[in-house]
Design brief:
The complex is a heterodimer of chains A (about 625) and B (about 675).
Chain A (H helix, E strand, L loop, with lengths): L1 H11 L1 E3 L8 E14 L2 E12 L10 E5 L3 E11 L5 E6 L4 E3 L7 E2 L2 E5 L8 E12 L5 E4 L7 E12 L5 E6 L6 E4 L5 E10 L17 E6 L1 E4 L2 E4 L3 H12 L7 H11 L5 H15 L1 E2 L2 E2 L10 H7 L1 E2 L1 H14 L4 E6 L18 E7 L5 E4 L19 E6 L2 E6 L9 E10 L4 E11 H7 L7 H11 L5 E10 L8 E12 L2 E3 L2 E5 L20 E3 L3 E10 L4 E5 L4 E5 L2 E10 L2 E10 L2 E3 L4 H16 L1 E6 L1
Chain B lengths: L3 H5 L26 H5 L11 E15 L2 E14 L9 E11 L2 E15 L2 E6 L5 E7 L2 E7 L8 E10 L5 E4 L7 E11 L2 E8 L6 E13 L2 E17 L17 E9 L7 E2 L4 H10 L14 H6 L8 H15 L1 E2 L10 H7 L1 E2 L1 H14 L5 E5 L19 E7 L6 E4 L20 E3 L7 E3 L6 E12 L4 E12 H12 L3 H12 L2 E8 L7 E11 L1 E2 L3 E4 L21 E2 L3 E11 L4 E5 L4 E5 L4 E10 L2 E10 L3 E2 L4 H14 L4 E5 L2
Parallel strand pairs in B: 1-10, 16-17, 23-30
Antiparallel strand pairs in B: 1-2, 2-8, 3-4, 3-7, 4-5, 4-8, 6-7, 9-14, 10-13, 11-14, 12-13, 14-15, 18-19, 18-21, 19-20, 21-22, 23-24, 24-26, 25-26, 27-28, 28-36, 29-35, 30-34, 31-36, 32-33, 33-34
Classes of the chains: A alpha+beta (about 625), B alpha+beta (about 675).
Chain lengths: ~625, ~675
C-alpha cells in the first residue's frame, strides 16, 4: 500500500503549501551524563537518537568534535536505521576522520574529528553513543542545549551531572527555568538531573533573534578552576575578571625603543585626545590581525613586546598592546571582554562561553568613554561598530571584572542621505548621478567599499543600484571620517548612457528610483512565528529629481503617501515642476523587539516604500 | 568536510592589458632589496594594486638522495606592499603531500624576512620558526601556514621555500600570474638526461621568453659522483596583470600563460628505456590494465542477485534496464561529492556506504553487464578542471570518467554518471560536458566523443491569463523544464530551505504572488519537471489606462554581461531553447493601445537567435517569444555582439501591454 501511495504522489506531483513549516528532524531522545571526578577531570557520556525526516536535514547526521590535549574519545558508535526499520550503517571510532584545517587562524592547538554519515532513504534514525574523558584545563562542563537547529523538534532530553562534595559546580539557565531532580549516588556524590520534553521546532526567520537566544540552554562551570598552571574562580564576573587581570600581569612592558617612539609621537600633543589619536594611528599603521590560539594563549594576551616585534596579534594582544602604549603616556585604559553575538550577558553566571572578543575602554578627561576596536583600527576612532554597540561587556581591572554596557546610537543617527538626479532622453537612455552619505551604523555597512579598487567599486555599484547596462560609469568612494566625529562614508556615482526606461510604442516606462535595489526586503508577516527584532534602527532620506525628455508628458503619476506605526514611519511625496519630477522619501525604522502578530505593520512600511519606488512613471509622446 | 578540498582550491580567473616589452633588469638578488624597491609607493602598470610581486623565481631540479631521485622546487618571491589592504600578502601557505612513506612524501622548508624603511634606514625582521605551523587538511594533504612579521604599508617581503618531492615523475605546472600583479617572473627547469619530458609554454595572458640550454650536472649516488647531461629550460616574463574573475569561463587556467612538463620516458643507466604515455593509445592501454581502472570494470557486481531477482535483465527496453539499474545502485550507495579517476574496490565502498563518482560508475558498469547492457568508461578532464592539452596525450590531465552505453541503432549513445543527483540519462552535471572525452574500449577500439553535443536543454512556459480592470494580471502558467534545466530546478528545490521558501523565492524573483503551486517530477529520475502555477501580477491602472508587463516569468530577466569589454572567451554551460507563449484576455470595455513589437534578431553568427511575435485577436493578446542559444563557445571578438543581443532580449522582456478604456 505504501508503495502505491508513493506512486500516486509521483504521478500527480506535490501541491506545495506555501505557508507550511516543515519539521526537518526530531531528537527522539538525548541523554548526557557528566561525571565530575575532580574540578578539572570529568567524563561525559552522550547518547542521541535523531530522526532525519527531510533531505535538507541530512547534514545533521554528521558528527563533528574538536579535540585538544587531554581529551580522549572512547567507545564511539553510530548506527543508522533506514525507513524499513533495518540497520543500514554502523560506524565505529576508527571511522572518524581527522583534520586540522582552520580557515581563520594561523595556528590553533586543536584538531577536528568528523564523520560524514550517508543517509540513503528517509526517514532515517541516527543514534550516537560515545564517551569522552576530559583531563586538565577544564573551565566549563558540557552545556545542555538539546535543540541546536532550526526546524528541529525535541521529544525528550535529559542531562545528568554527578558532582563530588569537594567540587562546587555552578549552573545557570537561559530561556528556561527547570527544577532539577537532586539525589545522591552510593558514594555520596550529588546527582542533578535536568529534563526537557516536547520542544517545538523553531522556524528560521528574518529579523528574529538568533537561535541561541530562543532555545533552552543551561551552562555548567566549576566555581574554581586550574588552567595551564594558573587557577581562578568563576564565582562571579568580578572573580573571573581577577583571573583575567592576573594573566595580563607582565604583558604590558614596552621595550625602551618603543617607549622612545611613543614619546616622539606624543610629546608635542596638548590633550589626551590628540595622544590617543596618534597612538591609534600608530597601531593602525604598524600592526595587523593574526590569530594564534595556543594553550593559555587562548585567554592570555601575547605580550606588548611580542606584538611590537612581529607587528601583529589577535584581539587580546592588540588591545593589551594599545593599553600599554596609552599607559606609557599616562592614559589609563581598561581591557574589556565582550561578545559580538550576544547582546546581554548573564549577570549571575560568569563563564567563557559567553565571550568572544576584546576591546579597550578609555575614560576621557571630560568623563566621556571612548571604546577602541584595536583589532580593526581601520574603523574611525570613536566609532562603536554594530557587532558591539549596546552590548554588555566585562571590564578587567585590578579590582576584578565589572559588567558594563556599551552605548548605542539613536536610530535616527544611523542615517543615509541620498540625492539622485536623472536626465532622461526620448530613447529611454539616461544620465544618472547618485550621491549617498552614510553615517554611524549605515557607515558600518558601507565603509569596506572604500577599500576596493575603482574597477571593483564600479562593478559593485552597477548592481547595487539599478544600472546594469551603462556605457560609462564613474564611481568614487570617500571615507570622510575624522577621529571623534560621526563616521561618514560618501559615494558618488556618475553613470552615462544608462538603458533606463522601457519604450513600448508611444510610451516610455520610467522606473521611479534607480536606488531601489539598495533596500532589499523580504516580507516578515507571512506565517510569522518569532517576535520581530530590529537590532539597529535607521533612517533614510532621499531626494530624486527626474528631468523629462522634450516632447513627452506624464500620463500617470502615483499619489503622495504617509504611514506611521510603532515600527517607524514612511512618507513619500511627488510633485511636478515644469519638466521635472521631484520625489522625496523618508523612511525611519525604530529598533526594538515587537510581537510576531504585529509583523504586518513592519511590512506595510517597507513594502509601501518599495512598491512606490519600484513603480514606473508612464510618459507619452505628445 | 566533503567540500574541504574544494574550498582550498583557489578558483582563478583573469583579465589584463597586453604585456608591454620592458628591459629593466629586475633585482634577482634576495636578501637586499634595492633602494628603489624600498621607496616605491605605487606600481606604474597598475596604480591601484594593493601589492605587487617584484620578483618571482622558481627553480626546479633533480637530485639523487638516499636511494632515489627527488625533485627540488625552490621558490623565491619578493613582494612590495603598497596599500594597507596589501598586508594580507604576508599570510602565506604551502601545500604538500605526505603519504607516510619514503616514496610518497614532500618536505618543505621555509624562510621569510620583511624590510621596512625606518627613518631612512632599512630595518630587517626575520620570521622565526615559531611562526610556521603545520596543518593536516585531509588524508595525506597538509599545509604549512606562516606569517611574516612587521608587515605594513610600504614593507618589502621576501620569502623562500624549498619543497623536496619524492614524486619525481611529476613536475608541477608553473603559472607566473597571481591575484596581484607580477613585475618579473622566471622559471628554471633542469632535467637530467635520464628523463624525457614534454615541456610546453601555453596560454595567452602574458608572454614568456623561452630558452633551452644544454648543461652537465653532478649527481651523487651512494657516495659516488656522476656527471650527467641535462636540459635546462628558462622561461621569463614581465608585467603580468593581476588575475581577475570573469563569468562564463570554466577554468581561467585554460587560457592563462603557463608552463607544463610531462614525462614521456625514463632511461636509467644500464636499464631499458621505459616509455610513458605519449600516445592516446598508450593511455588507453595503461588505463585498461590498471588495477583500479580497467580491471575494476570487469569485476563481479555486488548487486547481481538483486538485479536478477528483480528480473531487470529480462526487461526488453535497454533504457528501462539502464534506469532500473541506476535506481537500484542509488538506493544502495551514495555519491560523496568527489570526482575521481580511479575506483576503489566495491567491497570497501559497500562498507563505507558512499564513494566517488569513479567508485560508483565502476560498480554501475559491472551491474549493467549483469543485465546484459554493454557499457564503457569515458575518461575526461572536467570543464572545471580544464581543457585537455591539444598536443600531448596525458593521463595526468584526466580527472574523472563517466559511463557510455552504445545503443544498437544508428551509433547513438547514452551517457550517465552517478554524480548526477538530479539528472537523468544524458543529463549530467554541466562540468562533465567536456568537448574532448575518450571512450576506453578494449582492442584498440577507443574513440573520442564530444559531450557538448548532448549539452542542451529546453524550457517552455505557457501562460493563460486575464487582465482585470484594476490592472492585475491573473492566471495560470505551466512551465516545462527538460534536461539540464530540469536537473537545475530539482537541485534548487532540494537545496532550498523548505518548500515555502522555494515558492517565496520564485515570487520575489519574478515580482508575482502565487496562489497555488504544483510541481511534478521534482524528485523523480526523469527528463522533465513541470510546474503549474496560479499567479497574480500587479500592473498599474488609472481610470483610463492599464499598464502591464505580460510575462509572469520574464524570458530574459537580466543581461548577464555587464562589463564593457572582456578578456576571456565565453563558455556557456549548455545550449538552450526557451519558448514563452502568452494568451491574455482583456476586460470588457477596454481596448488594446500598445503591445510588444514583433521582432526577429540573431547575433554571433546566428549563435543566439530570438523571435518575438505578437498579435491581437478580438479580446485576446497573443505573444510568442522564442530564444535559442545554439552554441556553447564564443570567442572574445563575439562578446560585444552577445552583450548587445542580451541587452535587446532583456529589454523586450520588459515590454508592456497598454489598454485604454473604450469611451
Amino acid at each position: 500500500m505504501k508503495r502505491f501511495v508513493c506512486h500516486i504522489i509521483m504521478l500527480f506531483g506535490v501541491i506545495m503549501n506555501v505557508k507550511a513549516q516543515t519539521v526537518m528532524a526530531v531528537v527522539n531522545d538525548q541523554k548526557t551524563q557528566v561525571v565530575i571526578n575532580s574540578e578539572s577531570d570529568y567524563t561525559a557520556t552522550f547518547h542521541k537518537e535523531l530522526v532525519i525526516k527531510e533531505p535538507k536535514a541530512e547534514r545533521l547526521a554528521d558528527f563533528v568534535m574538536s579535540m585538544y590535549k587531554g581529551v580522549d574519545i572512547n567507545s564511539f558508535s553510530c548506527t543508522v536505521v533506514g525507513a524499513s526499520g533495518k540497520t543500514v550503517r554502523k560506524y565505529k571510532g576508527s571511522d572518524l576522520k581527522r583534520t586540522e584545517y582552520s580557515s581563520s587562524s594561523l595556528a590553533i592547538d586543536y584538531y577536528t574529528l568528523y564523520l560524514d554519515v550517508d543517509i540513503l532513504d528517509l526517514p532515517a534514525t541516527v543514534t550516537y553513543d560515545y564517551k569522552v574523558h576530559y583531563k586538565g584545563n577544564v573551565v566549563s562542563y558540557p552545556m545542555f542545549m538539546p535543540q541546536n537547529n532550526y526546524d528541529e523538534e525535541v521529544k525528550r532530553a535529559s542531562y545528568e551531572i554527578t558532582v563530588p562534595p569537594l567540587v562546587n559546580c555552578r549552573y545557570e539557565q537561559l530561556n528556561v527555568n527547570l527544577i532539577p531532580k537532586e539525589t545522591k549516588d552510593n558514594v555520596g556524590n550529588r546527582v542533578l538531573t535536568f529534563e526537557l520534553s516536547d520542544l517545538k521546532a523553531i522556524k528560521q526567520e528574518k529579523n528574529a533573534k538568533p537561535l541561541e537566544q530562543l532555545v533552552p540552554i543551561i551552562y555548567f562551570a566549576p566555581e574554581t578552576f586550574s588552567y595551564y598552571k594558573t587557577s581562578g574562580s568563576l564565582a562571579s564576573w568580578k572573580e573571573m575578571g581577577t583571573w583575567a587581570w592576573s594573566l595580563m600581569q607582565g604583558t604590558d612592558i614596552l621595550p625602551d625603543e618603543l617607549k622612545r617612539k611613543v614619546h616622539e609621537l606624543t610629546d608635542a600633543c596638548k590633550t589626551d585626545k590628540e595622544r590617543i589619536e596618534k597612538l591609534y594611528n600608530f597601531l593602525r599603521t604598524t600592526t595587523r590581525y593574526v590569530s594564534i590560539q595556543l594553550g593559555i594563549g587562548g585567554y592570555k594576551p601575547m605580550t606588548a613586546e611580542y606584538v611590537y616585534k612581529n607587528g601583529f596579534g589577535d584581539c587580546k594582544a592588540l588591545s593589551n598592546y594599545m593599553r600599554a602604549l596609552l599607559a606609557e603616556v599616562g592614559i589609563k585604559s581598561v581591557y574589556t571582554m565582550i561578545s559580538m553575538g550576544k547582546e546581554r550577558l548573564l549577570t549571575s553566571m560568569a563563564n567563557f562561553q559567553q565571550l568572544d572578543h576584546v576591546i579597550l575602554k578609555v575614560q576621557l578627561e571630560d568623563g566621556e568613554n571612548l571604546w577602541l576596536e584595536c583589532t580593526n583600527p581601520k574603523l574611525p576612532l570613536g566609532y562603536i561598530h554594530d557587532n558591539i554597540s549596546g552590548h554588555d561587556a566585562i571590564e578587567v581591572t585590578e579590582q576584578g571584572g565589572r559588567l558594563v554596557v556599551l552605548p548605542e546610537y539613536a536610530d535616527s543617527l544611523n542615517l543615509n542621505v541620498s540625492t539622485v538626479d536623472i536626465a532622461l532622453d526620448a530613447a529611454g537612455i539616461a544620465d544618472i548621478s547618485i550621491d549617498d552619505d552614510y553615517f554611524n551604523h549605515r557607515y558600518g555597512l558601507m565603509y569596506a567599499l572604500a577599500l576596493e579598487d575603482k574597477k571593483k567599486q564600479a562593478e559593485i555599484m552597477k548592481t547595487f543600484y539599478m544600472l546594469p547596462q551603462t556605457e560609462e560609469i564613474e564611481v568614487s568612494v570617500e571615507d570622510k571620517s575624522e577621529p571623534y566625529k560621526t563616521p561618514c562614508v560618501t559615494t558618488h556615482v556618475r553613470a552615462k548612457g544608462v538603458k533606463y526606461a522601457n519604450t513600448t510604442g508611444m510610451r516610455l516606462f520610467v522606473p521611479l528610483n534607480p536606488t531601489i535595489r539598495k533596500n532589499q526586503y523580504e516580507r516578515l508577516a507571512d506565517d510569522r512565528k518569532n517576535d520581530v527584532n530590529v537590532a539597529h534602527g535607521y533612517k533614510n532620506v532621499e531626494t530624486i529629481v527626474l528631468n523629462l525628455p522634450q516632447g513627452y508628458a506624464v500620463e500617470s503619476l502615483p499619489a503622495d503617501f504617509n504611514l506611521s506605526n510603532k515600527y517607524g514611519n514612511f512618507s513619500f511625496t511627488i510633485q511636478q515642476d515644469a519638466n521635472r519630477i521631484i520625489v522625496n522619501n523618508v523612511l525611519q525604522i525604530n529598533s526594538g523587539t515587537y510581537p510576531a502578530t504585529s509583523a504586518a505593520d513592519f511590512d506595510a512600511l517597507v513594502l509601501k516604500m518599495r512598491e512606490l519606488n519600484a513603480s514606473k512613471l508612464v510618459l507619452k509622446k505628445q | 568536510m566533503k567540500v574541504l578540498r574544494l574550498i582550498l582550491l583557489s578558483l582563478l580567473s583573469w583579465s589584463s592589458s597586453m604585456m608591454t616589452a620592458d628591459t629593466v633588469v629586475p633585482n634577482l638578488k634576495f636578501g637586499k632589496p634595492t633602494d628603489e624597491e624600498m621607496r616605491m609607493t605605487t606600481y606604474d602598470k597598475d596604480p591601484e594594486a594593493k601589492a605587487v610581486v617584484l620578483c618571482s623565481l622558481c627553480d626546479v631540479e633533480y637530485n639523487f638522495a638516499g636511494s632515489d631521485f627527488k625533485i627540488i622546487y625552490r621558490v623565491q618571491k619578493r613582494i612590495k606592499v603598497l596599500k594597507p589592504e596589501g598586508v594580507e600578502c604576508a599570510n602565506l601557505s604551502v601545500q604538500y603531500y605526505n603519504q607516510g612513506t619514503t616514496t610518497g612524501r614532500e618536505d618543505v622548508s621555509i624562510s621569510a624576512t620583511s624590510y621596512n624603511l625606518v627613518d631612512g634606514k632599512v630595518e630587517k625582521s626575520k620570521m622565526k620558526s615559531n611562526l610556521i605551523f603545520d596543518e593536516l587538511i585531509d588524508e595525506d594533504l597538509y599545509q604549512k601556514k606562516f606569517t611574516v612579521p612587521q608587515v605594513k604599508e610600504g614593507t618589502v617581503i621576501e620569502y623562500e621555500y624549498t619543497l623536496m618531492s619524492s614524486f619525481y615523475h611529476f613536475i608541477n605546472d608553473w603559472y607566473p600570474q597571481e591575484d596581484i600583479p607580477v613585475a618579473y617572473a622566471r622559471y628554471e627547469l633542469t632535467i637530467p638526461e635520464y628523463f624525457t619530458f614534454n615541456v610546453e609554454n601555453t596560454g595567452s595572458t602574458g608572454q614568456l621568453k623561452e630558452q633551452r640550454i644544454g648543461e652537465t650536472m653532478t649527481l651523487s649516488v651512494k657516495g659516488e659522483s656522476f656527471q650527467a647531461l641535462a636540459n635546462k629550460y628558462v622561461f621569463e616574463g614581465r608585467d603580468f596583470a593581476a588575475i581577475r574573475k570573469e563569468k562564463f569561463t570554466w577554468n581561467t587556467r585554460d587560457y592563462q600563460t603557463k608552463v607544463f612538463a610531462e614525462l614521456r620516458g625514463i632511461r636509467f643507466p644500464g636499464q631499458l628505456y621505459k616509455d610513458y604515455t605519449n600516445r592516446w593509445e598508450n593511455v588507453d592501454e595503461t588505463l585498461l590494465t590498471h588495477q583500479d581502472f580497467g580491471r575494476r570494470m570487469n569485476e563481479k557486481s555486488p548487486f547481481r542477485d538483486e538485479l536478477l531477482g528483480q528480473q531487470i535483465d529480462k526487461m526488453k527496453d535497454i533504457h528501462e534496464r539502464v534506469v532500473k539499474t541506476i535506481l537500484l545502485l542509488k538506493s544502495k550507495l551514495k555519491w560523496n561529492g568527489e570526482y575521481r579517476m580511479l575506483a576503489k574496490s566495491p567491497a570497501s565502498i559497500l562498507k563505507k556506504g558512499n564513494g566517488t563518482n569513479a567508485d560508483l560508475n565502476a560498480i554501475l558498469i559491472n551491474m549493467l553487464s549483469d543485465v546484459n547492457v554493454k557499457a564503457f568508461p569515458i575518461v575526461m578532464s572536467t570543464r572545471e578542471h580544464g581543457i585537455l592539452p591539444i598536443s600531448f596525450p596525458s593521463i595526468k590531465k584526466l580527472n574523472t570518467f563517466i559511463v557510455g552505453i552504445p545503443l544498437a541503432d544508428d551509433n547513438k549513445m547514452l551517457y550517465v554518471d552517478m554524480s548526477a543527483e538530479d539528472g537523468y540519462l544524458n543529463v549530467l552535471p554541466t562540468t562533465l560536458y567536456s568537448n574532448k572525452a575518450r571512450m576506453i574500449v578494449k582492442g584498440g577500439m577507443s574513440q573520442w566523443v564530444d559531450l557538448q553535443d548532448i549539452a542542451q536543454s529546453t524550457t517552455s512556459s505557457v501562460v493563460r491569463a486575464e487582465i482585470l480592470p484594476n490592472g492585475v494580471l491573473k492566471g495560470e502558467c505551466v512551465n516545462m523544464q527538460k534536461g539540464i534545466m530540469a536537473a537545475d530546478m530539482r537541485k534548487e528545490f532540494r537545496t532550498a530551505k523548505d518548500s515555502a521558501t522555494f515558492v517565496s523565492d520564485v515570487e520575489k524573483r519574478n515580482g508575482i504572488s502565487i496562489a497555488s503551486y504544483q510541481m511534478e517530477g521534482q524528485r523523480a529520475f526523469s527528463e522533465t519537471v513541470k510546474e503549474t502555477i496560479s499567479f497574480v501580477k500587479k500592473g498599474d491602472a488609472t481610470p483610463d489606462h492599464i499598464y502591464i508587463n505580460p510575462f509572469p516569468f520574464k524570458p530574459v530577466r537580466e543581461n548577464p554581461f555587464t562589463a564593457v569589454a572582456r578578456q576571456l572567451p565565453i563558455e556557456f554551460p549548455f545550449k538552450l531553447k526557451d519558448v514563452t507563449s502568452v494568451v491574455l484576455t482583456i476586460p470588457d470595455g477596454w481596448e488594446v493601445e500598445e503591445i510588444p513589437q514583433s521582432v526577429s534578431i540573431s547575433a554571433a553568427n546566428n549563435g543566439v537567435a530570438a523571435v518575438l511575435v505578437s498579435s491581437v485577436e478580438g479580446n485576446q493578446v497573443n505573444i510568442h517569444f522564442k530564444v535559442d542559444v545554439k552554441r556553447i563557445f564564443y570567442g572574445v571578438e563575439e562578446y560585444a555582439d552577445l552583450k548587445m543581443m542580451f541587452d535587446v532580449l532583456s529589454e523586450r522582456s520588459k515590454d508592456m501591454v497598454v489598454l485604454k478604456k473604450v469611451q
